[in-house]
Predict the structure.
Amino acid sequence: MNDAPANTSGGRVAKNTTYLTLALLGQKVLSFVYYLLLARLAGFSITGDFFGALSFVILFSIFIDLGLTQAFIRQTARDREEGIKQFQLIMTMKVIAAVLVVIALFATLAVLDNIGRSHPDTLFMRWAAVIMVLDSLTLTSYGYFRGIQRLEFESFGTILHRITVMVIGITGLVMGAPPVITMIAVLGGSLANFLFVAFHMWQQGVAWRPRWHGPTARHLLLIALPFFIAGIFTAIYASSDNVLLSIFTGRREVGLFGTANKIVVAFQILPAALVAAIFPAMSAAFVQDKDRLRRIFTSSMQYLMIIAIPLMIVLFLLSKEIVLLLGGSKVWLDAAWPLKILALGVPFLFLNFPVGYLLNSANMQTRNTINIAITVLINVGLNLVFIEQFSYRSVAVISASSSALLFLLGLFQVRKVLPIDWRSLFVTFWKTIFAGFIISVLGWWLLPQVSGRSGEALAAGAMLGTYLILIFLFRLVRPSDLRTMVQRFRRT
């Protein structure tokens, strides 16, 4: 079918997609580097406090936002002037909510102390609470720019935030600053991001003044309710593992699991970038050409299998070597076990991206939210049963299993939207399993033979080069596929 005609709005959407995709890619890369340096310089107890504190505030932050930012974006896109009025009201609501949520956060910590449960260091939590409030106000401010389709500001602010965190955090740790510098660094990044967006809001003639109008506030909360409910389950899914580990075990376990998890999560930018590029095509094809939608879905699943399955095998077979390489010390060897288990969930984690976006394209986002809710309830329930006895080991098993469950629930719904090309997917599956096994054996033999960063880099390069040869040799990727993929990214 012919592509939609180019127009100003389409050009803006394409630029927005490019800006945000590149910013998220940069953020993930910088975050990964920072977390690895944090693990090396700070040790797993401080790393545990760091991950634990941020996970706690992720859970509580949804009660500051209340889903209002998504409602605000929609209103601003429809009527900019009305959006500005609502911005002033929403920011007032969020300041009030922030005070209540911070009180609730520290009341929760007090309860945990009284019943003999652990939690991240209180000093870390104080800084994390300030970060939580700043980030929530920043989120709504960027909501205005999303509403008027100007995502270049958010893209730059995202990178500014991460660079600021790295500069302050790494400099402080190298110079022997107290451990809490890790949180102060995040606060520095959040403050820089907030001031950046506030300046550009001022340039747009949008300034926050306290404003209250009860009927409008109630109307906004009603509109925001579905976003709020979805946000609760998403926040629990993203942070409950570290929060429960903080409460039922301790900082060491949070540090070990959190570091292993960050290694896996860092690779999520690969499916996120791909799906961000093809989502507009999916949405259009759902309305115009279901056969084309099936081809897009199948090809995206195949591309991600080509990445995810060998990555799973490499992380699983070489978990100890990877932990030693990245952690820099044998004290991190205990992180190899959760990394090995989390690796088994990588294919499900990756393949859920096209599944979820397909359901969104087919106007089944409510079903997607229900799937997340089911997964979250099972995940938390199982963790509450097993976490005290098995610590981060059970958390890793439950996390990988939850990724599989969410993927299977989504795939069951996809079958109702379009027929799945199972034959093509199974052929790709077995070819990638074999290719991944070959490069894992190569790595297993090579890594003990080399020494130093240059030797490790050469071994990694040899494994990557071998895999590139294998994917062409096994006809997993053809030159025509590369041309099609490049053209698709250019159009997006």
About this structure: The chain has two domains: 1-266, 267-492. The chain is about 85% helix and 0% strand. Residues 305 and 429 are 7 Å apart (CA to CA).
